[in-house]
Amino acid sequence: MRGPDSGAPTRADADRLDQTHGLGTRDRFLLPERLVYLDGNSLGALPAGVPGRVEAVLREEWGQGLIRSWNAVPSGGGDWITLAARVGDRIAPLIGAGTGEVHVGDSTSVSLFKALSAAARARPERRVIVVEPTTFPTDGYVAAGVADLLGLELRWCDPADPLAAVDGDVVVLALTHVDFRTGAMFDLPGITAGAHDAGALVLWDLCHSVGSVPLALDDWGVDLAVGCTYKYLNGGPGAPAFCYVAARHLDALTQPIQGWMGAVDPFLMGPTYAPAEGIRRFLSGTPPIVGMLALQDMLALVEEVGMAAVREKSVALTEHAIGLSDELLAPSGVEVASPRDASRRGGHVTLNHPLMREVTAALWEQDVIPDYRDPHGLRIGLSPLSTSFDEVERGLESVREVLARVTT
Amino acid sequence: MRGPDSGAPTRADADRLDQTHGLGTRDRFLLPERLVYLDGNSLGALPAGVPGRVEAVLREEWGQGLIRSWNAVPSGGGDWITLAARVGDRIAPLIGAGTGEVHVGDSTSVSLFKALSAAARARPERRVIVVEPTTFPTDGYVAAGVADLLGLELRWCDPADPLAAVDGDVVVLALTHVDFRTGAMFDLPGITAGAHDAGALVLWDLCHSVGSVPLALDDWGVDLAVGCTYKYLNGGPGAPAFCYVAARHLDALTQPIQGWMGAVDPFLMGPTYAPAEGIRRFLSGTPPIVGMLALQDMLALVEEVGMAAVREKSVALTEHAIGLSDELLAPSGVEVASPRDASRRGGHVTLNHPLMREVTAALWEQDVIPDYRDPHGLRIGLSPLSTSFDEVERGLESVREVLARVTT
User: Fold this and answer.
1) Tens-digit pLDDT profile for chain A (408 aa)?
2) Fewer beta carbons under 10 A from the terminal one: N or C of chain B?
3) Phi first, then psi: what are they for B179, rounded to 5°?
């Protein structure tokens, strides 16, 4: 993406890329002036309309509507009772899901627990859950918790060949699509098909892909997925996760946290739980209405831009970061930990160097905000709709300066 | 509470009570003009400062602080990483808990699931969970789900004598303190002691008592409790629930949704889960930061007023409602379903009449908002800090008018 005359990076380079590939969406976010924000894959930036809209919704729908806002209000607000489903249905096109396959409400950990438990209980003759050891820790932890609770075996697979661990004993293979450390992306369709050949279900953690990488879960035959909404979906701190269950499984899978909101008629209030038809059976308690407000602004923006353009910008940003790293940082011993093949890379780039912990701390001091991940990775999160090429350039320039300082 | 000259209710009566018992807190809420809101035990009113404060926190802590706000910010904001614990510690005095015994984060259903699972797993030699059949449905549903998952027996008890069902096989007795239909309040200390005599643990659902009835969980030796923050704690729609675990159990109890936020060091990100010391082990995923914002305004107000004054006003409101029902509605066949002994009653009053479903619908049409619960209960929720005596009087007058209309 450095252009045909690829030489040393120049400010004009970044400016040109912001013109040609910028999508013009950066001013749709409220970002601190001069801050270089390279951590949108931990917490996405604040969409500009959110504070005012949340304030208005609190005043109108909560303050004036009160309990009535659980129902649809003639003026168009309220209808909280269907909000988890409606937000799920808006996330669906981003991951290639259909209407009624996605719900929103719990944390990623709780969603994972429900989905893994549901999968494991559906095929009690299979006794093994497979995860990979470099996955985001909560995935391994939750899988271990489910295995412990249900008396199953937890089996670690080789990230280089997850299918080697999937045999006829495996009930579900749970993988993270885009690695939170390196940005490496699994071959989701291929692995899904391979696991199905062994008769296993597949659950994908999409935390680091949704809103950055287009997905086609239905087409690829995925069984289950969960994902986070505060990274590339800019839902705000602690915004609820989503859970995808393929329509073909919705009759057979039940999750064990049998709350009233997942019951066939929540307001019948009878003594015996019967799960709702469809995805609502994956709900448990009252969904976090206020926590789902901010998310809707970002969904509207993604709908406006389209996931293809989002991915194109994302690839351009990561290519630019890798190119800059090669030119500016490789001489200091920095190695690109992320795949160089864009088709195998998600929305962030990780740069390794033994001193990256110290480098990250020093960068934060000068308002350059990447993230750090053990053992020695500087993680450059590039949020397609809010990160500029100029920002990437200023950020990697700063890394170079800081690295020169801490190594001398 | 009708005063020494107890006769037919007059407007002056309500005015006098608002003067003497009103606490002067009604204008701390943004309530629609002329609305009679008698459903604060479903969704508490909006504290006046919330929309502006939430808007400012979104702009500052999310928009400007971004990922940095997970840490404490020198200016005093941020510190999201400890927010669930800090909010828990502010709820603690309202329920007679100590610092480090309460956390906030999931829905009530998920919190119940965790607490019941933790209890059941701690004493595997006991194989029965006891619940009562008139409890809020989610409590029974979740208990059934836990029993099913762990291969335990679910035993229903007689609400008139729950202890009769508690024998040496019972691992945990789970009861709702204040009945969501009638407002009847269990003898929490007595039942807790009785269950302990049989060697069982006790879990209390405090959804309809926290913020309305003062509690002394530590003094009463309660083991576990959960409760809701969008009723009398005015945390907003879908605000997260809290979970109490007595300090003496914190080492022994572990819950099965092993997310990273409950791990001993969330940022170590090692492959093996080890639960955190203390209440944090009951957390799973990233807590809902935005969802915990509103709640803090109400906690500040309760701290200002004190739970003793809250309860005094609550009792005065329910007494007033019962007195008005006796005078205005009993002639039409309305029966008070709630206990007449204030010491056995929570913060709401339920009035039975065969036509209450129709009455409720008609009341809503004229901006009088109580709730309806099967089979034929009109539920009058009286939120101590936002409901006025005048409102109760106007509300019950409206019930009388509507009842006269629908019965002729």
Assistant:
1) 444 344 555 567 888 999 988 899 999 999 999 999 999 999 999 999 999 999 999 999 999 999 999 998 877 789 999 999 999 999 999 999 999 999 999 999 999 999 999 999 999 999 999 999 888 888 999 999 999 999 999 999 999 999 999 999 999 999 999 999 999 999 999 999 999 999 999 999 999 999 999 999 999 999 999 999 999 999 999 999 999 999 999 999 999 999 999 999 888 777 789 999 999 999 999 999 999 999 999 999 999 999 999 999 999 999 999 999 999 999 999 999 999 999 999 999 999 999 999 999 999 999 999 999 988 999 999 999 999 999 999 999 999 999 999 887
2) C
3) -65, 130
**Residue A271 forms contact with B (CB below 8 Å):** yes
Crossing angle of helices B307-324 and B293-305, rounded to 10°: 90
Q: Is B199 exposed, middle or buried (0-12, 13-18, 19+ CB in 10 A)?
A: middle
Cα separation, B27 vs B20, in Å, equals 16
The structure tokens listed for B309 are 């004054």
Chain B residues within 8 A of A66 when measuring between CB atoms? 32, 35, 37, 39, 43, 45, 369
Active site includes A379?
A: yes
> Is any Cβ of chain A less than 8 angstroms from the Cβ of B240?
yes
**How many inter-chain contacts (A to B, CB under 8 Å) are there?**
285
Q: Does B74 touch chain A (CB under 8 A)?
A: no
Instruction: Compute the distance between CA of residue A339 and CA of residue A397 in angstroms, rounded to an integer.
Output: 22
Are A147 and A190 in contact by the 8 Å Cβ rule? The answer is no
Concerning whether A197 is annotated as a catalytic residue, the answer is no
Amino acid, single-letter form, for residue A280: R
Is B230 marked active-site?
A: yes
Closest residue, chain A, to B107 (C-alpha): A285
A108 contacts in B (CB within 8 Å)?
A: 259, 285-286
Q: Which helix (H) or strand (E) holds A391?
A: helix A389-406
B80 and A237 in contact (C-beta within 8 Å)?
A: yes
- Which of A63, A141, A373 is opposite residue B30, by nearest beta carbon? A63
What is the Rg, in whole angstroms, of the alpha carbon atoms belonging to chain A?
22
Residues B271-327 pLDDT 10s: 789 999 999 999 999 999 999 999 999 999 999 999 999 999 999 999 999 999 999
The verdict on a CB contact (< 8 Å) between B67 and A39 is yes
User: Looking at chain A, which residue has its C-alpha nearest residue B256?
Assistant: A145
Q: Name every residue whose Cβ is closer than 8 Å to that of residue A7 and which is 6 or more positions away in sequence.
A: none
Cα–Cα distance measured from residue A136 to residue A179, given in angstroms and rounded to the nearest whole number: 8
Separation of alpha carbons B336 and A288, rounded Å: 34
Whether residue A285 and residue B258 make contact (CB cut-off 8 A), yes or no, is no
